[in-house]
Amino acid sequence: MNRRKFISSTVLGAAAFTILPRHVLGGNGFIAPSDRINLGYIGVGKQVGTLLRGHMALPETMIVAAADVDSSKLNRFLENANKANAEKSGHQVQGYKDYRELLRRKDVDAVIIASPDHWHALHVVHAAKAGKDIYCEKPLALSIDEGRAMVDAVRKYKRVLQTGSMQRSYYNFRQAADLIRNGYIGDIKEVNVSVGEPVKECDLPWLEAPAHLDWDMWVGPSLYRGYHPVLSPLLDAKEWAMWRLYHGFGGGYITDWGTHMFDIVQWALDMDHSGPVSFTPPDQANAKEGLYYTYKNGIKVHHKSWGKFNAIQFLGTEGKIEVSREFLTSDKENLPKLVIPEKDRKVYYSENHYKDFVDAIKKRSKPICDVEIGHRTATVCNAINIAYQLQKPLKWDPRKEEFDNAYANNLKTRPYRGTWDYRDF
Length: 425
What we know:
Layout: H1 3-18, E1 37-42, H2 48-56, E2 61-67, H3 71-86, E3 94-96, H4 99-103, E4 110-113, H5 120-129, E5 133-136, H6 144-156, E6 161-163, H7 171-181, E7 188-194, H8 215-219, H9 252-256, H10 258-268, E8 278-280, E9 292-294, E10 300-303, E11 311-316, E12 319-323, E13 328-330, H11 353-363, H12 371-390, E14 394-397, E15 402-403, H13 406-410
Parallel strand pairs: 1-2, 1-4, 2-3, 4-5, 5-6, 7-10
Antiparallel strand pairs: 7-11, 8-9, 8-14, 9-10, 11-12, 12-13, 14-15
Domain Gfo/Idh/MocA-like oxidoreductase N-terminal: 38-164
Protein name: Gfo/Idh/MocA family oxidoreductase
InterPro entries: Gfo/Idh/MocA-like_OxRdtase_N (IPR000683), Gfo/Idh/MocA_oxidrdct_glycsds (IPR050463), Gfo/Idh/MocA_OxRdtase_bact_C (IPR043906), NAD(P)-bd_dom_sf (IPR036291)
């Protein structure tokens, strides 16, 4: 063998070694480079602890980067992420203030987005454009048009997106959905959803932002307002950030807890790729509950307190089912633990929302809460807020994604500040 052939053979051999599947290399938990999924985290506040534990419990994952505009939260996350990596590879995690620097890294395979809701659309669109797969916290979008743009971007760049509606991977909700879809309580006539109040205007005073927080970047595409710790609490604050309650940053409890509970309604009623046809708010001004929406088949879903909080009550012609994270009950005693027969029509099965995301990445398939599903649920919640805001009944076309009212259609999007543009993909 001459020198050129020797070098060529050696290089090819080395390259082949790096893409051998892990079972060829002897098992024992070893993950070959080709099997590793490198993660970047965008937004590392309180919610990220749950996501870090969930994703890093999987053997395939490793963290390579993280981004946040709050340096104190970013530094804490880097410390925890490096500890999580140490049990696998010892790879050191790089931190960034600007998420766009993270997205430029070629070694980031997927991003975990846990930023405030007003950033979701830009983070998802830019991640898809950069060729990253995406796990995005719920609610997927803060406006209806943002959600459709996110679907279009994910589809255009052929990415996998899992919405963080992890209740679909819980037994209680999966069992309820299977029972309802297969008629175990007859035909559904009414659904009652108990979650908190709609979005409200932000009247917090403007304060000076701490030095570790780039407040202008935190506000990002939303209309500017001054800092307040209720919107972005300090590192060790026990309370959750309440940006989620205020117009321009969140959608109130309608989108915060509502995207969990109305999502299960969509799932159980087999409406994942459609939605209601009308929204009817109560007559009184500044109402906190009382709205109902209606599907084409006549089923009405009420936003009201019915005795249990953050929970759903399904009323059928032959019984009822009540479900939350803590309980699954029915007036038919055998239903909560009934083994659903194989012949019945079953919903997508997942016991681990994070593993389902990683499996979808490897198979290039749609996960249990694909981008379209996340968008449709967020649309229901955003439309509820619009109806409460306008105080008038609205008809909705779930195919065209349009209201019968010009003012309502104007509220399908929201003003963006500066040069930010979620449609640029």
